[in-house]
Amino acid sequence: xxxxxxxxxxxxxxxxxxxxxxxxxxxxxxxxxxxxxxxxxxxxxxxxxxxxxxxxxxxxxxx
Length: 63
Fold this sequence. Notes:
By secondary structure, this protein is mainly α. It has one domain (about 10-60). It has helices spanning about 10-25, 30-60. It starts with 7 loop residues before the first helix and ends with a helix.
């Protein structure tokens, strides 16, 4: 799944899907590696989005 075009909500939903797959234990080792890498990218993007949103909110209250 291409993560660069996902909204925060869709990225979070995808992370939740990945967690369910990882917890099921049914994925092969190759797929596990891919899923973990994808989740890491999505988590990073979500953290950035949250930080930027927090900065925007703080800036709005300063004005």
